[in-house]
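2 proteins. here.
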Amino acid sequence: MVAGTSARESVKEMKRLKNEPLLLLVIIAIILFVGIFVIYPVVKVILFPDGGTYLELFNRPRWLTAIKNSLFMTLVSTISCTAVAFLFAYVIARLDVPCKGLFRFITLLPIVSPPFIVALSYIAAQRTLYGYNDMADAKALLESIARSFGYIYGREKHVRINTVSQSPTPTTAGSGVLGLGDLMEFAENMSPLGNASAEDCADYVLTLFSDLTRKVTMQNLYHDGGFSSMGMSRRAMKTYEKGMRFEDVHENQYPFGK
């Protein structure tokens, strides 16, 4: 009964649009805009690979790990964002608490664009590190975008854009990289100060948000314990004295196979 009433009301609303042609044109324009610039590109991206490409995702453990980690991050971020949003909405709409104006102010903060943008990169964007593969291409593109848009946004909006080339870090996404543990051990042996942890990276990024770095932009800033400037450390030299091996290629069967 309720559904029938809602349907009749919807029909009445549609008929009213005949008397408001401007509103009708706006609605049609919005529908066309969403269809052309949102739905159509998504459909093209989904249909571009053939079926074999999608099946290949389930045949490689490395890609399965990346998919699993991506879904996990999506689930965690969705649940946490929904919980926080519900809390804010409930406090603002239902409760009479002190400092309610502060809650309203906090909800407006995301609207204000900060004068800085920071993205995380990795030295594989400039050097070949076995196992990083197509992620290296993505990081190289990221650094190029930071330089290109750093000029545009710096000139027009005074926004600073930088990338931080961090030590190999066992993040959720990074755990899908082939041989991440070996990369971390190698970087630890090569770096004079050792690998920079995630907490160290967070502290460093905070400095880029301050006025003390207000003239730093379009830079790829290395935060890796000195790894990026090293050629060969004493510890790494002792390891290589035992002889160079190519077991990584034969063990993982990628990209050459046996």
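next one coming up
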Amino acid sequence: MPLRSWTHFFPPYPGPATPAAFRLVCAAVSGAALSLSYTGFYFGIYSWFCIGLLLVVILDARPRIAFACGFVHTLFFVFTSVPWIATVLAIHGGLSRLGGWAILFLIASVMGVLTGAFAWCVRCLAQRGLVLACVGAPFFWVTFEFALAHLPEISFPWNLLGYPASANLALLQLGTITGIWGLSFVVAGYNALLAWTTLAPAPPAQMRATFLSAAAVFIIAVMTIGPRFVPRTSANHFARAVQPNFPEAMEYPADWFKMHARDSKIRSSRATLRCSPFIFSIPSSPELSSGSPRPNHPPTRTLRPLRTTAPFCWTSKVKGFSPTIKFTSCPSANTSPFR
């Protein structure tokens, strides 16, 4: 593989070795950057090139270094995308903060082994040919994602690569046939194309860039124009989501509901007076339940309605520890916050 632009930092194995530390730093950066697709402002664009950066790092590395890069990539990805797990374990699991982060490290390690195996497999294919490795990379990625989501007892199907793409209604239609795995395959395939464009010795760089640009234009066109062709239906149901505000307890005796019957009646009547036949009960959030109980606090304070053309749906988005529930309303529904 001849050296091209910035890729001179990655001379082909077994040529002059790039420092392993530099590869590991790049893998860590790619993992932390990928988490931005799942946190903060949810910039899904990161999912379309961060795995490509990881592939560029590992395709000419020694197999054991490739495995380490995959492991480090996931370690930083987990720490930056789901740090709330450590906090929840500390607040509700009776652990210290250090213990919560230790458990999160174990979770990240299990995921890291799978990503490391992905990197090792791709690197082994690269020894037979760069094109073969880039073609096989999406298949390996989806295989190990599927394994992660179906591990016995410790499966963790969070923040899969296809989730950011599912925010687009046109791309989401692929999920009706393949599930989330099809979207992960598409995103991983574009990342593999990016790695091939960066490292391939032939065809000429301008032609490789044309292939990459054509793929990008096609994906953008589908994401922009495609949603207009997705059939739409009018909403004909109206629902309210109710968030109980019961005090949290470490254990629940047999007479717990009897002890809180009055609170339950107050909240049920409050919800029934204002709700349609459809009512969802959302568990109380840690922020509300970890402190002193506030029986007079309206349980639906954080609820906001969402106008949509879907027949009926509801989603929840957690901000900090206070869930904001969004749900379908009919066109005539009141759009003011529920108090």
